[in-house]
Amino acid sequence: MDEKTEKTNVVEKQKETFFESVTARYTKVDPQSYLQREGETKNRYWLRRLGQIKPVELLWGDAENSELKRALSAFQLVFVGIGAIIGTGIFVLSGLAAANNAGPAVTLSFVIAAIAAAFAALSYSEMASMIPVAGSAYTYAYATMGEFVAWTIGWDLILEYMVGAATVGVGWSGYFVKFFEVASGGKIKLSSDWTEPTIKWVEVPAEMSLSGAYLNVPGFCIIMLITLILVIGIRQSAMFNTIVVTIKLVVILIFIFALSGFLDPANFSPYIPENTGDWHFFGVIYIYTCIYKRTYILIVIINSYIGFDAVTTAALEAKRPQRDLPIGILGSLVISTVLYLAFCTIMTGAANYTEFKGSPVPASVAVEAVMRRYTDKNFAWLNILVAIGAVCGLTSVLLINLLGQSRVFYAMAQDGLLPPMFAKIHPRFKTPHLATITVGTITAIMAAILPVDFLGNMTSVGTLLAFFIVHLGVIVLRFTRPDIERRFKIPGGKYFSLIFPILGMCISVALIAVAEVTTIWRLFVWMFIGWILYFAYGIRHSRFHRDPIGRFKEGERHLPANTEQDDTGYQVQEYDYVPETHQADPNTHRI
């Protein structure tokens, strides 16, 4: 063998050794390695702690040991997704986007959004079929990129759910007032002193002042009511969500079919209004930027993201998580996209897009425009139905946001990163009641005193970051754990299918790049607060720091006992087993 061939073989062997060492981090886990090694400095130990993963098999063990009640079917999970996706976006922001930014071409904006969301839905579905555990992107990051990244994503999701729910709470209050006004023919008008937030916010120049109102009582009360429903039980919450989502869908369909014969073709011309000289307003380029550039429109897409995330946060409460989670994720995406496109088409055809400017109730504007054109038609009943549909739609969004937030709290507390009180399960209702009450109360107070424009600007691009992590997690596990059964796998074969998560990562980065600078700064401020809490509490109370051996032993009832002794005498766990949640026949799953 010549010298060149020998060097080549050495290089290849080094590559194989490196790859084996990387995959061993995921396929063989030594509980002792989570302790400080002999001769290891404290700084090196704490640095190593940041990247320690939570093995997939241990997550399976957690799923089997969970005290949460498995009550959600595939049908209910689809409704969970729809409940989070269809709400403020379709009833409020679609009209603002058409009036201020895209004109009738707002439908194309939603098509772009749907394509971006589809990449995410595929990655979420594959991850959920492998790791059917509460926590969603937080849990996936813990299994693939380590504790610090997991904390960052979990803390980010807390902000998204909390601010998202508070924003919807303020919007719900507005529709609540509108319903009484429309239903009574203008005779009943609730006082703004008790239906508007305490604080007034002006973005430019930044100024916060008292609005003159006392509290947004309807917003506060509806959030506390939803919190109570979530505490009572997941079965009751799912039933309530199914009812309000059904009402919402029926109202949307009635609106579409009732006005489909009264569209004015002139309203679609021009389909893409001429650009005003500012790339924020109209023109072909704005078809892309109208969704992602301005804060309010960004909320529409973030609602879709939270829709996916909320489905996966309920994994421990799904009857057959591996099969049903992908159905819930992809089913809710398809149904919601079709309804968004149909609703926006009818709305912009019934009324000229300029009429929606400044109106928080674009559907009502469309109905009134038809009544002006056809004086012999009385659609007042449809206006009342739209108000009812909007109230139900926003209620379901509130329910799912608070559900998702409490389950992220629960997952993080189980790992010791948050106080253990948030991991406690109610002995009767089998729900994380303390986590639910805590996040619900904080969210209700925010909705009572903060205005919708301030809350909207607090909403960050953090969900895009979570998306990026989920896409990356799919790629990592494809190479490090190809042995894990995947009930759902991104189509395209072993390698070609990776194009989807790679494109999804690129889209996430691109959308973050075009977001408002102030939105990104708010994300960094929130993250900085989270990192302070992590290094002050989380990293020191993490169960992988305080008692890693005990943490692994928790799953021994469901994990195999085939361990080996390596040369150093450490216990090395060889994971080659399939837990009960991964049975070939989903019908045999223990509920």
What features would you describe in this structure?
A hairpin with a 5-residue loop joins strand 4 and strand 5. This protein has helices at residues 3-27, 42-50, 56-65, 74-85, 88-102, 106-130, 137-144, 147-183, 217-232, 234-259, 284-292, 295-313, 321-350, 362-373, 380-414, 433-449, 452-458, 462-480, 493-496, 499-513, 517-541, 543-546, 548-553, and strands spanning 28-29, 199-202, 207-210, 563-565, 571-574. The protein contains 23 helices and five strands. The strands form two sheets. Strands 1-5-4 form a three-stranded antiparallel beta sheet. Helix 8 (147-183) runs antiparallel to helix 17 and helix 14 (362-373) runs antiparallel to helix 15.
List the helices and strands and how they pair.
Blueprint: H1 3-27, E1 28-29, H2 42-50, H3 56-65, H4 74-85, H5 88-102, H6 106-130, H7 137-144, H8 147-183, E2 199-202, E3 207-210, H9 217-232, H10 234-259, H11 284-292, H12 295-313, H13 321-350, H14 362-373, H15 380-414, H16 433-449, H17 452-458, H18 462-480, H19 493-496, H20 499-513, H21 517-541, H22 543-546, H23 548-553, E4 563-565, E5 571-574
Antiparallel strand pairs: 1-5, 2-3, 4-5
Helix pairs in contact: 4-10, 4-12, 4-13, 4-15, 5-12, 5-13, 6-11, 6-12, 6-13, 6-18, 6-20, 7-8, 7-18, 8-9, 8-15, 8-16, 8-17, 8-18, 8-21, 9-10, 9-15, 9-16, 10-13, 10-15, 12-13, 12-15, 13-14, 14-15, 15-16, 18-20
